[in-house]
């Protein structure tokens, strides 16, 4: 018997599934949008950033794949402006460097 009473990541996955369902950029195949890498000024081996955009829906993801803090500056062509953190408050993307804690990820949407 599987004990389903203790699911510490249930809210995390529920939030991600809802984002995928509600945001057209994340839909599958031709219905969604391809991931487009966002170039960074440094740490390209340690930090991966990408955007998916479709019909004015944007999802921007930044991932730190290391156990050390990383600082990156997004390429000048990267999306800029006010976004919503999927797991938090509003977030301003600008030309300023971004610090990512060890293993940190940031998922942003424009709606």
Describe what this molecule looks like in 3D:
The protein is mainly beta and 111 residues long. It contains 1 helix and 8 strands; from the N terminus they run αββββββββ. It has one helix spanning 10-22; strands at residues 36-37, 47-54, 57-64, 70-72, 81-85, 90-93, 98-100, 105-109. Strands 1-2-3-8-5-6 form a 6-stranded antiparallel β-sheet, with no helix packed on it. It has a two-stranded antiparallel sheet with strand order 4-7. Strand 5 and strand 6 (90-93) form a beta hairpin. The longest helix is centred in the first third of the chain and has 13 residues, at 10-22.
Compose a concise summary of this entry.
This protein has 111 residues and is mainly beta.
What proportion of the residues is helical, as a percent range?
Answer: 10-25%
List the helices and strands in order.
HEEEEEEEE
Instruction: Give unreliable regions as ranges.
Output: none
Q: Kindly report the average pLDDT value.
A: 93
For the structure shown, list the relevant keywords.
globular; mainly beta; six-stranded antiparallel beta sheet; 8 strands; single chain; two-stranded antiparallel sheet; 111 residues; 12% helix
Topology (SSEs and partners):
Blueprint: H1 10-22, E1 36-37, E2 47-54, E3 57-64, E4 70-72, E5 81-85, E6 90-93, E7 98-100, E8 105-109
Antiparallel strand pairs: 1-2, 2-3, 3-8, 4-7, 5-6, 5-8
